[in-house]
Specification:
Structural class of chain A: alpha+beta
Membrane topology (chain B): Multi-pass membrane protein
Structural class of chain B: mainly alpha
CATH class of the largest domain in chain B: Mainly Alpha
CATH topology of the largest domain in chain B: MetI-like fold
Radius of gyration of chain A: 25 Å
Helix content of chain A: 25-40%
Strand content of chain A: 15-25%
Shape of chain B: globular
Distance between the termini of chain A: 38 Å
Number of strands of chain B: 0
Protein name (chain B): ABC transporter permease
CATH architecture of the largest domain in chain B: Orthogonal Bundle
Largest sheet of chain A: 5 strands, mixed
Strand content of chain B: under 5%
Helix content of chain B: over 70%
Largest sheet of chain B: none
Family (chain B): Belongs to the binding-protein-dependent transport system permease family.
Organism (chain B): Haloferax gibbonsii
Strand order of the largest sheet of chain A: 1-17-24-22-23
Number of helices of chain B: 15
Number of strands of chain A: 26
Oligomer: heterodimer
Radius of gyration of chain B: 25 Å
Order of helices and strands of chain B: HHHHHHHHHHHHHHH
Number of helices of chain A: 22
InterPro entries (chain B): MetI-like (IPR000515), MetI-like_sf (IPR035906)
Largest interface: A-B, 61 and 51 residues
């Protein structure tokens, strides 16, 4: 991919997407071209109550709707990122998602329905992943990471919160990763009116013990999340957790209301609410909600939270389409809950989750067709080749990926010129190719700016529309050594005997990372060899995962570290910039200064080069209302 | 008697030192359970806890961790152990005994069966090789025994799981028994347990029997050359009696200590094998505990493995004199 096709906003998304997929599974693509679009048109509409909009697969390339005030702020933050490089975004990840097609009817791999988080969660609910007529398979088989018998389903405990959660519980809303649009699910509809957000709970939904799902359950879920440090807190009760109970309330059986402390951008609110599972069953969690609501001091609250976070729930009462049956050391079995509103869409009786604790075992299970699919799994090319033809691989944008993170208090990368030189030297296409191990699951970032959506072309088509020419690419698929050399010379370095030096000392860039993340390690090694070729003394220092995250990373004990460069949880640009400029990671671990100097893009937003990006991020959270 | 007391005292000292050293070393491990959770979240999408929540909890934990100096924690832990309290597993939020206890029988099943197989096959084969000393069979078996004995068990395990498990799909690739069955004393369940245990047991037995066979062969040949055997033959004793009571007994005797030590490894002998076959036994939970930095669980597993080993060696020591009266005389004649 060259930079040439970036200007055309409508065409390039399609062409890049097709390009990537054509590269991907040369043989299988032929079949899809015919049936994909049509099948995609029919299905989504019925189940979409709130979001509306995207009815056809072709619309996936429509630019995301955004108001002008938000857009200007997003562009400004992107420009600051592009010009100062607090991190260097290298690549965006595409999650590989697998579906077997011989016993199952599933949408084609490039249809819109697949572009959700995740297909195994949503397609069965919408009747889009069904057992085929000639199939004898009454049971869908998937995989789980934790030993089933040791798995538990208290999300606030978080440890061993196993995959069956995806069928046992329902999410608040659905979200299409490509169109970035929300549609109602357990929360069937919502309305934001000034500082009041009203949520409607889906009619006719019951818990697996037969009791009705009510607005109180939704309220309890939100409250427990807020008490546990969830991100909504800053909009609901920024100063004192003592008034959460007054601010999140059920006004009747099926309506929940959240009073916000300030006006908040609707997209951002929804992004926080959408992924939540409704787990807070009264019998199990009600006691905690009451005690937290009534707690009189934060000490009292922490002790209740301590109990909540160490509670183990091994036989959950959910409200999703499948109910818990049993779990042993090898598998968890869940069976269809006939009273779920979507039960009629599901034509198989059981789902089993087999214990597959490693990528290798998951690859083999897919190759053997022991499992019927996998929501997300990195599979290198040599294994992809062994997959039977009946297994289709779709690529789902993950809005996240590997980046180089700089420690802003450590020489030499505290100097933005050195960071930019590094960016020029690194050929991101090579990094993405090696990191992807022959698959197309990693795409090089074209404009290092903190914006995601490389696959659908929305960086150019939506977010940077009209200002693209101001942005630096730093050479996506090449090593721009001349530009790098000029920057280093400006920063006081000279090349002697093939090595860049300042005051006789060679320029050293050690890159630390977690050894267990093999795709990251491959990417880092590529960058290291490119830097060395250019004359920067670079080495990769890979540590045990827990040691890396628990020691090197959190203590800021690195010059350059490997880390995702965007928000892991949400795809709206607000979350990426919040992660980069207004998170505890940035402040405590990367030692980011609050104020930095950067050229100005929109002078109505800023005067002068000094900028506090966190303030722009806060402005963005309330913009457009 | 004083020798027995001294020997027991020394065993206790060994256990005490190992436990103390493990306690110290584990505290030097960087990272904690939440860091593991963070890595897991990024790698597997395995948690729904947000980054913000993880950070909040890390901060909360750091506040708790500073309240007691290490020596106080150490004294608390050691006194708790003597009361039989191994503490709470951090990762599983239940007692360490509750995690390890149910895993013990499964590990013992694997290791004990493998040991039994390896020992009986090894000893019989060794005896037969000695009997046929110098024959093609002897030379061939010695070669095979040497090769297998120097092959690590995990290599065999990986070959088994790749070919017999995934390629040919003859054996299950993990688990203790088929999920459909009800555990209990019924034939299908026991058959399934054996079926699931076959590959792990064989991986351990195949690499071990060669060693036993070679020792047995060596010992037997040495015994066959002894004067008292010539006397026995001259006395016209039946061959069967010579083979069993004269040769076998004396040849096995030097292997007794090795056998007791092998019995001592029943808890800790299958750590890697259990992980390869996703077989939730003690070793499986030990590796989980190390990855998740679950120190109470790690300590529990280490203590169990150490104690079993020390008991094995101590029993070998204390009973050897009884088996072989020539070795009576105590401390000057230890068997390891």
């Amino acid at each position: 991919m060259t930079n040439d096709d970036m200007g055309s906003t409508e065409r390039s998304p399609v062409s890049r997407r097709q390009f990537v997929q054509a590269l991907g599974a040369a043989g299988v693509t032929a079949g899809l071209a015919g049936c994909g679009g049509q099948q995609a048109t029919q299905t989504t509409t019925e189940s979409e109550n709130g979001g509306g909009g995207a009815d056809t697969a072709t619309e996936t390339t429509t630019p995301v709707e955004v108001d002008s005030e938000s857009l200007a702020l997003i562009q400004e933050l992107a420009y600051v990122t592009n010009q100062t490089l607090p991190v260097l975004p290298l690549q965006e990840k595409l999650a590989q998602s697998f579906q077997t097609t011989d016993d199952w009817n599933v949408p084609s791999k490039d249809s819109e329905q697949i572009q959700t988080y995740w297909p195994t969660d949503w397609l069965p609910r919408y009747g889009e992943w069904t057992s085929s007529d000639e199939s004898s398979d009454e049971r869908m088989t998937l995989a789980q990471w934790a030993v089933p018998k040791d798995s538990q389903y208290n999300p606030w405990n978080a440890k061993n919160f196993a995959e069956p959660r995806r069928t046992l519980f329902d999410r608040f809303m659905n979200y299409n990763l490509e169109t970035q649009e929300y549609s109602g699910y357990l929360v069937s509809d919502w309305e934001l009116d000034g500082e009041t957000l009203t949520l409607s709970v889906r009619e006719g939904q019951t818990w697996h013990d037969g009791t009705a799902v009510t607005a109180t359950d939704v309220v309890n879920q939100i409250k427990l999340d807020i008490y546990n440090g969830g991100s909504l807190r800053r909009f609901v009760a920024p100063d004192d957790e003592g008034n959460v109970a007054d601010r999140v309330t059920a006004t009747d059986e099926s309506t929940a209301e959240i009073s916000l402390a300030t006006q908040v951008n609707e997209d951002i609110l929804l992004a926080y609410l959408q992924p939540k599972y409704l787990v807070a069953h009264e019998e199990t969690y009600g006691e905690f909600v009451t005690r937290l609501d009534e707690a009189e001091s934060s000490d009292e609250r922490s002790s209740v939270l301590g109990e909540l976070t160490s509670k183990v729930v091994s036989e959950p009462v959910g409200s999703g389409p499948f109910t818990f049956e049993d779990a042993d050391t090898q598998r968890t079995l869940v069976s269809k809950y006939e009273d779920h509103p979507d039960a009629a869409n599901i034509n198989f009786d059981e789902v089993e989750y087999l214990y597959k604790p490693s990528n290798q075992s998951r690859w083999n299970s897919l190759i053997n067709e022991e499992t019927d699919g996998s929501a997300t799994l990195f599979m290198p090319n040599n294994k992809l080749n062994q997959l039977p033809d009946s297994v289709q691989t779709s690529l789902i944008p993950r809005h996240w990926g590997l980046g180089l993170l700089f420690n802003h208090e450590r020489e030499p990368v505290s100097d933005p010129r050195v960071r930019k030189a590094i960016a020029h030297v690194i050929n991101r296409e090579d990094v993405a190719m090696n990191s992807g191990a022959g698959t197309n699951s990693k795409i090089a970032v074209t404009y290092p700016s903190g914006l995601t959506s490389e696959l659908s072309g929305q960086v150019e088509g939506t977010w940077l529309d009209g200002v693209l020419d101001k942005f630096e690419t730093y050479g996506r698929g090449e090593s721009q050594t001349d530009k790098a050399a000029a920057l280093l010379e400006e920063a006081g370095y000279q090349k002697q005997n093939g090595t860049w030096r300042k005051d006789g000392e060679p320029l050293r860039i050690p890159i630390k990372g977690p050894s267990g993340f093999s795709d990251w390690v491959a990417g880092a090694q590529t960058a290291v060899s490119q830097l060395n070729q250019f004359g920067i003394k670079s080495e990769s220092v890979m540590k045990d995962n827990s040691a890396y995250w628990g020691q090197d990373y959190v203590n800021g004990d690195f010059v350059v570290a490997l880390q995702g460069w965007a928000s892991y949880e949400n795809s709206h640009p607000y979350f990426h910039f919040k992660f980069l400029y207004d998170s505890s990671d940035a402040a405590d671990y990367w030692n980011m200064p609050e104020q930095i100097d950067s050229p100005v893009l929109h002078d109505q937003l800023r005067d002068g080069e000094a900028v506090t990006p966190a303030e722009l991020v806060t402005e963005l959270s309330t913009a457009g209302e | 008697m004083s020798y027995v007391l001294k020997r027991l005292g020394r065993s206790f000292l060994t256990i005490f030192v190992v436990v103390s050293a493990s306690f110290g070393l584990i505290r030097l491990l960087p990272g904690g359970p939440l860091d593991y959770l963070r890595a897991q979240m990024i790698q597997q999408g395995g948690s729904d806890l947000s980054t913000a929540e993880i950070n909040r909890r890390i901060a909360a934990q750091t506040n708790i961790a500073v309240d007691e100096p290490v020596y106080v924690q150490y004294i608390d832990y050691m006194t708790a152990i003597f009361r039989g309290d191994f503490g709470q597993s951090i990762w599983y939020d239940q007692s360490v005994a509750g995690v390890i206890g149910p895993a013990i029988p499964w590990t013992v099943f694997l290791t004990a069966t493998a040991l039994f197989l390896a020992f009986t096959v090894g000893v019989s084969l060794g005896a037969f090789m000695a009997y046929k000393e110098g024959s093609t069979f002897d030379v061939g078996s010695t070669g095979v025994g040497l090769v297998l004995n120097s092959t690590p068990g995990y290599v065999v395990a990986l070959l088994f799981i790749a070919f017999l498990g995934y390629r040919l799909q003859l054996f299950p690739t993990g688990g203790r028994y088929a999920s459909e069955l009800t555990p209990g004393l019924n034939v299908p369940f026991l058959a399934s347990v054996l079926y699931h245990g076959t590959l792990p047991i064989l991986s351990m037995a195949i690499v071990a029997f060669g060693g036993w066979a070679l020792s047995m062969r060596g010992n037997s040949i040495r015994v066959l050359g002894e004067d008292y055997l010539r006397v026995a033959r001259l006395r016209g004793l039946p061959t069967r009696r010579i083979a069993l009571r004269y040769v076998a007994r004396n040849a096995i005797l030097p292997m007794y200590t090795g056998l007791m030590i092998a019995i001592g490894t029943v808890f800790g002998g299958a750590v890697i094998i259990e992980n390869i076959f996703a077989y939730p036994g003690i070793g499986f939970y030990l590796i989980q505990a190390i990855n998740a930095r679950d120190s109470p669980l790690m300590m529990g597993a280490f203590i169990l493995i150490t104690v079993a080993m020390v008991i094995g060696i101590t029993v070998a020591d204390l009973t050897y004199g009884w088996l072989d009266p020539r070795a009576k005389g105590g401390a000057s004649r230890e068997s390891y």
